[in-house]
Amino acid sequence: MTSSVPTSNRIRVGSAPDSWGVWFPDDPQQVPWQRFLDEVAEAGYEWIELGPYGYLPSDPVRLGEETARRGLKVSAGTVFTGLHHGPAVWEKTWAHVADIAALTRAMGADHLVVIPSFWRDDKTGEVLEDRTLTAEQWGDLTTQTERLGREVRDRYGLRIVVHPHADTHIDSEENVSRFLDATDPDLVSLCLDTGHYAYCGGDSVKLIETYGERIGYLHLKQVDPEILAEVVADEVPFGPAVGRGVMCEPPGGVPALEPVLAAARRLDVDLFAIVEQDMYPCPPDKPFPIAARTRRFLRSCGA
């Protein structure tokens, strides 16, 4: 046995409903949740995320039975927030968060992925608000995110990991750094999505090396650089860009995942690395072969 084996085991690989083209709780273009669970297990993954709340059964007893008999465990839930709008949206935000956090905790997971709200609609492209935050909005974003981190920790024992995302205000290297520098490391960690960060011009390895203590979770994803150049030049919203295939199957895109995983291993902490290849909408038979090939590829990278 080589010395690298225990280290590589510190990265626990999983997948998510996103990799099966699931973006919504209920949508006729998506595969049934039973098929997702069957196929994600068959593809060789042990860990999953909950995906959009209501897609998988929200009764923890039933979900626990369905995952256990397939050898699956839950790594995280996901919530969507608009915390830069300040205290006025807190009650609405908490109403969204509470049920998801309760199910996440009941499933034995420790993380809650927090995705900021979009400044333009990911389907229609309608501009919903200014893509640049004011100083006051930045202040609200950071203080309200810390509040969320504290409440989720104290009430549910979960740690929030904030997910930089295309077409949100936490996207580029500049904005991610600004956000991290202004938030308390004890309350706020980062979910580094390698695809979204590359989509927005960031370098994942550099981010891990610079802010290693803030990296609490990974989403593994790649972008097709040629399609990315087109969607950036044409100012295409994120949803239609996914429809064009901007998120592609590893190892065919950027960033290279081997250096990202190597940098993550050097942190010497336990991390989840969840595959998320955005594919909405997609034919129902498309995800499984990709998921299986991706799992084999990640094994070749030591994960």
Q: Please tell me the overall pLDDT.
A: 95
For the report, how would you describe the main beta sheet? 8 strands, parallel, barrel
Q: Decide which structural class fits the backbone.
A: alpha/beta
Tally of distinct domains? 1
| Radius of gyration, CA atoms, in whole angstroms | 18 Å
Q: How many DSSP helices?
A: 12
What general form does the structure show?
A: globular
CATH topology: TIM Barrel
CATH class: Alpha Beta
CATH architecture: Alpha-Beta Barrel
Indicate the percent of residues in helices.
Answer: 40-55%
How much strand? 15-25%
CATH homologous superfamily heading: Divalent-metal-dependent TIM barrel enzymes
Q: Give the beta-strand count.
A: 10
Separation, N- and C-terminal Cα atoms: 16 Å
Low-confidence stretches: 1-8
User: Could you spell the SSE succession in H and E letters?
Assistant: HEHEHEHEHEHEHHEEHHEHEH
**Order of strands in the sheet with most strands:** 1-2-3-4-5-6-7-10
Describe this protein with a few key phrases.
303 residues, alpha/beta, TIM Barrel, two-stranded antiparallel ribbon, 10 strands, 16% strand, IolE/XylAMocC-like, Xyl_isomerase-like_sf, Myo-inosose-2 dehydratase, Xyl_isomerase-like_TIM-brl
Describe the structure.
It holds the Pfam family AP_endonuc_2. This is Myo-inosose-2 dehydratase. Residues 37-300 form the Xylose isomerase-like TIM barrel domain. The chain has 303 residues and is α/β, with parallel strands linked by helices. The chain has a single domain, classed as Divalent-metal-dependent TIM barrel enzymes (TIM Barrel, Alpha-Beta Barrel). Helix content is 41%, strand content 16%. It has 12 helices and 10 strands. The chain has helices at residues 4-8, 33-42, 60-68, 90-106, 135-156, 173-181, 194-199, 204-210, 225-233, 238-243, 257-266, 287-300, and strands at 11-15, 47-49, 73-81, 111-116, 159-162, 189-193, 215-220, 222-223, 247-248, 271-275. The strands form 2 sheets. Strands 1-2-3-4-5-6-7-10 form an 8-stranded parallel beta barrel, surrounded by 5 helices. A two-stranded antiparallel sheet has the order 8-9. Strand 1, helix 2 (33-42) and strand 2 (47-49) form a beta-alpha-beta unit. The longest helix is centred in the middle third of the chain and has 22 residues, at 135-156. It is globular and about 50 Å long. It starts with a helix and ends with a helix. Mean pLDDT is 95; it is low at 1-8.
